[in-house]
Amino acid sequence: AITRQYTFNITYKNFTRLCHTRSLVTVNGKFPGPRLVAREGDQVLVKVVNHVAENITIHWHGVRQLTSGWADGPAYITQCPIQTGQAYTYNFTITGQRGTLLWHAHISWLRSSLYGPIIILPKLNESYPFKKPYKEIPILFGEWFNVDPEAVIAQALQTGAGPNVSDAYTINGLPGPLYNCSAKDTYKLKVKPGKTYLLRLINAALNDELFFSIANHTLTVVEADAVYVKPFEADTLLITPGQTTNVLLKTKPHLPNATFYMFAGPYFSGMGSFDNSTTAGFLVYKHPSGNNHLKKLPSLKPTLPPTNATGFVANFTKKFRSLANAKFPANVPQTVDRKFFFTVGLGTHPCPKNTTCQGPNNNTKFAASINNVSFVLPSVALLQSYFFGQSNGVFTSDFPQNPTIPFNYTGTPPNNTMVSNGTKTVVLAFNTSVELVMQGTSILGAESHPLHLHGYNFFVVGQGFGNYDPNKDPSNFNLVDPVERNTAGVPAGGWVAIRFLADNPGLWFMHCHLDVHTSWGLRMAWIVLDGPQPNQKIPPPPSDLPKC
Ligand code: C2O
Ligand code: CU
Fold first, then answer.
1. DSSP letter for each residue of 346-358
2. CA 360 from centre of chain
3. Which ligand is nearest to the Cα of residue 207, counting in written order?
4. Residue 415: its pLDDT value, please?
5. Which atom of ligand 1 is closest in space to residue 487's alpha carbon?
6. Contact assessment for residue 330 and residue 96, using Cβ atoms and an 8 Å cutoff
7. Nearest listed ligand to the Cα of residue 369
């Protein structure tokens, strides 16, 4: 293992898409941002230097951060933001993971332009559990806004309304030919015939779960969230924000000059508005002579499911299984020490006195909550408060283990949609085996929520529609080869059950990875206490940790 050093200079740079030029906050002037490449076992040092007016933090999404929570990155959770003119070096080691993850800004909506791939190669002398691909290509999905997304969310939080939606989806930063004024900004994946390519698919979009498909080509899924899975074939994938999926693309043997469309478009089950557009790229077979005569558009288009295809999504999600072999075992907790039942969903806040609000149900503000608690970010970093024993007045440890307002999640919504505010955490003893069932509420309509847990992978042991039944559903849990991920969807109008072993001491954020839901409060934090061994304790913070 070696140490890899990166410098991320946060700078402004103008980019033009859809004939709109905007000054984007970038890493090293790149959009999307640069690749971070490491081998399993390597230490990574990333010096982030802030040259812009905005406060910045970067999160290494899905990196386990074993006892290195100071490098995790969510603003006001594990660190204060890096202010203008300041620098902070993230220091972490990649342990027991290989595949694709992503890094992204973790403050406000700055992820819209600050994101990039994390590529974790197997250790030297170790191979993939599938045929070595001819080439490996990261494909990042994102969103383009013609206006500043920071202004979009600021305005939405002020008025209480749903935010304006993006103007385009992008593939590697490019909207593609289906949008006005965008044909020249099309991603082209150039391939040779008869080869196997590894596509590292990453959804970095702010607010949209996306379907992805390439015309006339079947993809073989081999890895999700930097964990190998049992390979399976799919014509269309679903990737939620925060999820990564590695797929093999086998190119056809003889197709000189052929081109095919690839599409990514939204899955959306909830209320309100969303960007119902499609981003397209080209799969281009290179001519053996090296001359490409690509002038006309591809003729074949893939067919994406309808935007509200919840049944498709449930079936697709169930196909993921851990490899669970001798080399890559699935260490699924077989027994449970603590069971949690969280309701996740949208609700409302009352409109402040003497103002008018544009949220749902007449003069309210949109809110979102877990167990009816809409999480309020503190103005200092929780991990620091916790580490130095200064939680007083910053956070409490009484996050409810079960819903405080029980109701039938599939039945008639309650009259009262109001949620309460709080900065509440759950405290877990080291090595607690946790089962968490997350039940989507339908208070403001059924909506799917990609829930992300920091500092951990978890096993998705069950999922279903309707109300979770604690007497019946656990008998169908998969405790043998469930998929291991860091982000999993709570199905629209249903539930998901996960298990994890709390073996990583620290303070770990959990939230919906649709940024608008996070901004509305669909977030909370777990505290995992130190273990007995020296390497099971949170070390003191690095000296350059930013101050609030
Ligand atoms: Cu990718 Cu807390 O996020
Ligand atoms: Cu959500």
1. EEEEEPPTT----
2. 27
3. 2
4. 76
5. 1
6. no
7. 2
Which pair of structure tokens corresponds to residue 245?
């999926």
Structure tokens that stand for 415 in this block: 């009259």
CA–CA gap between residue 447 and residue 494 (Å, rounded): 9
Q: Are 245 and 213 in contact (CB under 8 A)?
A: no
pTM above 0.90, yes or no: yes
Q: What is the whole-number distance in angstroms between the Cα of residue 490 and the centre of ligand 2?
A: 8
Contacts of 291 (CB under 8 A, 6+ apart): none
- Which tens digit of pLDDT belongs to each residue from 134-171? 999 999 999 999 999 999 999 999 999 999 999 999 99
Place of tokens 């699924």: 332
Cα of 514 to ligand 2 centre, how many Å?
5
Measured CA to CA, the distance from residue 169 to residue 188 in angstroms comes to 15
Structure tokens at 342: 């969280």
Encoded amino acid at 234, one letter: A
Domains in the chain (CATH in brackets) are 1-127 (2.60.40.420), 129-320 (2.60.40.420), 338-536 (2.60.40.420)
Q: What are phi and psi of 158, to 5 degrees?
A: -75, -45
Whether 523 lines ligand 1, by a CB cut-off of 6 Å, is no
Ligand 1 binding pocket includes 111 (Cβ within 6 Å):
no
Nearest CA owner, ligand 1 atom 3: 61
Q: Which residues lie below 8 Å from residue 177, measured CB to CB, with a gap of 6+?
A: 183, 186, 280, 297
Q: Are 225 and 243 in contact (CB under 8 A)?
A: yes
